[in-house]
Specification:
This protein has 471 residues and is an alpha/beta fold. It has helices at residues 11-20, 33-36, 49-54, 72-86, 97-100, 110-125, 141-145, 153-169, 182-191, 202-226, 248-270, 276-282, 295-299, 329-332, 356-368, 396-414, 457-468, and strands at residues 26-30, 90-94, 129-135, 175-180, 231-237, 241-243, 305-309, 314-318, 338-340, 375-379, 419-425, 444-447, 452-455. The protein binds 5-hydroxymethyl-3,4-dihydroxypiperidine.
């Protein structure tokens, strides 16, 4: 189905916002393979760590899995039609490694590649540019059986897989993102165990973060050699951290929070170093044996753009411990030392809303990393308790969130930050990882019983913003 004709809240303000956007500014939507595709046993796809994890009792709310999700694998034409009617310039999708290379190494699955060829062709036919993410957390299970991202060899396997996808799609895709949010893959996947593969091991969180960045750098080098004219980037999820007071303990806790959520990723990628304080904090948990000579030259391979996912800022308060906590305790349990304080406005995820946080983050990146490549906001959005009434989903909280954050991006560009585009997370309601299907982020409501798509008020609002742009 295509867009229905629900009223658009505050059309004038949407149009005014569209006119504020810099010339050529790109607007898009984003999704990810495991969250929308379903069809986990079809077309020769192998199992991923998220299949295993979601089928393990107690790991995902209500025992939900991505087995069917939005059934996008079969309904991608309908979903592309929704994007066409929305008027987006670009669509950020991810390729499922286990569809393309079920074992994570060796044999390639032509049926898996064929799905992405059909999808890319459909996008191009409707004038939508594909922005392809190669890894959005669905590691082939056979690689996990060999250690997953703890195993340094996985970095090379990832680079090989990236080239396979590029060989198949590179004649139609010229913009590539290697990894989505390596923080989540490493810290949540191998540190806190909240995400697949569910490992709780501080040293593993650090080594996997490093191996992910190594895989990113190896993939960029290999892909650039094959096609120097394409654009290559990585997407990092970043949180500006603010101490809740001037107390030394809070300031110190904020520094650690920012180190773990931001700088252990931005520094190796944008500067080719690890921060000095990372060595100091890591020392207690790890011998850093994973770090080898030459690695940081690989992780800092020059990029054409940086993808930034922003959702919320961290307001950090030091929590007293009965006994001195090991410095790295935060990796085991991110809530243990600093806390995020509940704000007045909190999303269904429990995340505080602070639209100016996106501006502060962008300005921080710009000031901290001279030579910062152009930035794309590759995800931004909020979960709302969306309930259709007839054919209407009145998600005005989402509209308010998106409006405020886009204005924050405009303010950052006015302050000199080179931001080239913005992608709403997400086109569709989808499988929100350990939270299952109850957390809805879509511009389009999905009824998981019928797979009916229903554009929400925010979809109509975004269409007005897109249409109003001066360019
Ligand atoms: O759904 C996720 C996405 O997969 C990665 N970034 C954050 C989103 C909302 O939690």
């Amino acid at each position: 189905m295509t867009a229905s004709t629900t009223a658009v809240p505050d059309v004038a303000s949407a149009r005014e916002l569209g006119l504020l956007l810099p010339p050529g500014f790109e607007l898009g939507v984003a999704t990810a393979s495991y969250q929308i595709e379903g069809a986990v046993d079809e077309g020769g796809r192998g199992p991923s760590i998220w299949d295993t994890f979601s089928h393990t009792p107690g790991k995902v709310a209500r025992g939900e899995t991505g087995d069917v999700a939005c059934d996008h694998y079969h309904r991608y034409r309908e979903d592309v039609a929704l994007m066409r009617d929305l008027g987006v310039d670009a669509y950020r999708l991810s390729v499922a490694w286990p569809r393309v290379q079920p074992d994570g190494r060796g044999a390639v699955n032509p049926d898996g590649l064929a799905f992405y060829e059909r999808l890319v062709d459909e996008l191009l036919e409707h004038g939508i540019t594909p922005l392809v993410t190669l890894y959005h957390w669905d590691l082939p299970q056979p690689l996990e059986d060999d250690g997953g991202w703890r195993n340094r060899d996985t970095a090379q396997r990832f680079a090989d897989y990236a080239r396979i996808v590029q060989d198949a799609l590179g004649d139609r895709v010229s913009r590539w993102i290697t990894l989505n949010e390596p923080y989540c893959s490493s810290v949540l996947g191998y540190g806190t165990g909240r995400h697949a593969p569910g490992v709780k091991d501080t040293h593993a969180a650090l080594s996997t973060a490093h191996h992910l960045l190594l895989g990113h750098g190896l993939a960029v080098a290999a892909m650039r050699e094959a096609d120097p004219d394409a654009s290559y980037g990585i997407t990092l999820n970043l949180e500006p951290a603010q101490p809740v007071s001037d107390r030394e303990a809070d300031v110190e806790a904020a520094r650690r929070s920012e180190l773990l959520s931001n700088r252990i990723f931005t520094d190796p990628v944008l500067r080719g170093t690890y921060p000095d304080d990372a060595r100091e904090v890591w020392g207690e948990a790890s011998d850093l044996g994973f770090l080898r000579d030459g690695d940081l030259a690989v992780t800092s391979a020059p990029l054409d753009f940086l993808g930034v996912n922003y959702y919320f800022p961290a307001r950090i308060k030091a929590v007293p411990h009965e006994e001195p906590a090991p410095a790295l305790r935060r990796v085991d349990d991110l809530g243990a030392l600093p806390l995020m304080l509940a704000d007045d406005d909190v999303t269904e995820m429990g995340w505080p809303v602070d639209a100016d946080g996106i501006r502060r983050l962008l300005v921080w990146l710009h000031r901290t990393y001279p030579g910062l490549p152009p930035v794309y906001i590759t995800e931004n959005g909020r979960a709302c308790a969306d309930v259709p009434e007839g054919d209407v989903v009145d998600d005005r909280d989402r509209i308010g969130y998106l409006d405020g954050h886009l204005r924050g991006v405009v303010a950052a560009t006015e302050g000199g930050v080179d931001v080239r585009g913005y992608y709403v997370w997400s086109l569709l309601d989808n499988f929100e990882w350990a939270a299952g299907y109850a957390r809805r982020f879509g511009l389009v409501h999905v009824d998981y019983d019928t797979q009916r798509r229903l554009p929400k008020a925010s979809y109509h609002w975004y269409r007005e913003v897109i249409a109003a742009r001066a360019n």
